[in-house]
Design goal:
- The protein has 124 residues and is mainly α.
- The protein has a domain of 84 residues: Substrate Binding Domain Of Dnak, Chain:A, Domain 2 (Up-down Bundle).
- It is 68% helix and 8% strand.
- It is built from three helices and two strands.
- Helix 1 packs antiparallel against helix 2, helix 1 runs parallel beside helix 3 and helix 2 runs antiparallel to helix 3.
- The longest helix is centred in the middle third of the chain and has 33 residues.
Length: 124
């Protein structure tokens, strides 16, 4: 009898921890990139965050699960925007050809350093 109670309690703790982690990562991501999404999507995410926080205050595990799922769905819009942004940056950064004899590299301080290199084609 106690084993079943322990299993149920462990599942409840895992659900709470997952919800808490989801709230934390969503809040952090929204804080960093919230300006890149439409206000309606941002509002939906904030509402879903509020619902999960409120659900975590109580003992209704099903409510926590439902609220977490709703937050996950709402935050997909944020993930889509970040993915598109990353794709655009990757495409924009790939404008120099691989066979270029000259390239510019950024140092840790952000300075641009001119450099020349020669492809030895595997010869050393």
């Amino acid at each position: 009898a106690h084993a079943e109670e322990d299993k149920t309690r462990r599942q409840e703790i895992e659900i709470r921890n997952q919800a808490d982690s989801l709230v934390y990562t969503t809040e952090r991501t929204l804080g960093e990139h919230g300006d890149k999404i439409p206000a309606s999507d941002k509002s939906a995410i904030e509402d879903a965050l509020k619902e999960v926080r409120e659900a975590l205050q109580g003992d209704d595990i099903d409510r926590i699960k439902r609220a977490s799922e709703a937050l996950t769905r709402a935050s997909h819009k944020l993930a889509e925007v970040l993915y598109r942004d990353a794709q655009a940056k990757a495409q924009g950064g790939a404008t120099t050809g691989a066979g270029s004899a000259q390239g510019k590299a950024k140092t840790a301080e952000g300075e641009v350093v001119d450099a020349e290199f020669e492809d030895l084609g595997g010869k050393q």
